[in-house]
Amino acid sequence: QKEVEQNSGPLSVPEGAIASLNCTYSDRVSQSFFWYRQYSGKSPELIMSIYSNGDKEDGRFTAQLNKASQYVSLLIRDSQPSDSATYLCAVNPTFSGNTGKLIFGQGTTLQVKP
Amino acid sequence: GEEVAQTPKHLVRGEGQKAKLYCPPIKGHSYVFWYQQVLKNEFKFLISFQNENVFDETGMPKERFSAKCLPNSPCSLEIQATKLEDSAVYFCASSQSIAGGNTIYFGEGSWLTVV
Fold first, then answer.
1. Could you give the angle at the alpha carbon of A45 between the alpha carbons of B45 and A100, nearest 5°?
2. How far is CA B92 from CA A9, B69, B102, in A?
3. How far is residue B20's CA from residue B10's CA, in Å, rounded to a whole number?
């Protein structure tokens, strides 16, 4: 079992729809969770971080964390073609102490069709 | 703005040659991280530094890979005797701290192609 798992997609949604991206993780004691957006050939860009159970909203983005079920999701409302990218879920594992390293999922490719 | 200016952006090496990549962290950042991204977006953590000291090297291959962060110099990642499977994008990232809520800033990556 991979430490962080995502469906690689592609996930295709029409413009204006809600895109829902999901991620599960194996380290039960992880405390920090991140969503990065990566355009092709570019560096990952942090769009959301979440540390406690529940929802966290920032503009069109909402991150949801459920530690009991070990999943974290990202919702993108009113999806735009410019949101088309790969979305990487990353977890900061704490089983060996916090060293700041991130474990990434394989990424979900999102395509927003005009 | 905040930027980790990795160099070179592209590097082509023949099998068996050495490759060296550079990463100047953002001024004021104490932590530097190296990641390797191969096909299908598989990011792999390699090593991290706290200033000049190795902080976490649990992801570094045992052979051929080495890294340094020396005072007044950009951090570096060196691969001796490159192999085809070393072809990847190598991302460097830096951060002020590793406390919760701290942002890690990624560079644009160095694309290594081994032929």
1. 35
2. 26, 12, 16
3. 11
Q: Which of residues 14-73 of A touch B (CB under 8 A)?
A: 31-32, 38, 42-46, 49, 51
The stretch A55-84 carries a mean pLDDT of 96
Cα of A82 vs its chain's centroid, Å: 17
Q: Do B110 and B50 form a contact (C-beta atoms < 8 A)?
A: no
Kindly calculate the radius of gyration of chain A based on its CA atoms and give it in whole angstroms: 14
Question: Residues of A with CB below 8 A from B56's CB?
Answer: 99-101
User: At residue A30, what is the residue type?
Assistant: S
**CA nearest to A98 within chain B:** B98
Torsion over CA: B94, B98, B99, B101 (sign)? positive
**Residue B109 at interface with chain A, using a CB cutoff of 8 Å:** yes
What tens digit of pLDDT does each residue of A32-56 get? 899 999 998 888 999 999 999 999 9
Q: Does A95 touch chain B (CB under 8 A)?
A: no
**CB-CB under 8 Å, A103 with B91:** no
Average pLDDT over residues A67-81: 96
Nearest chain B residue to A101 by CA: give it: B45
What does the pLDDT look like over B32-85, one tens digit per residue?
A: 999 999 876 688 999 999 999 999 999 999 899 999 999 989 999 999 999 999
For all residues of chain A together, what is the average pLDDT?
92
Kindly state whether B22 is in contact with chain A, defined as any CB-CB distance less than 8 angstroms: no
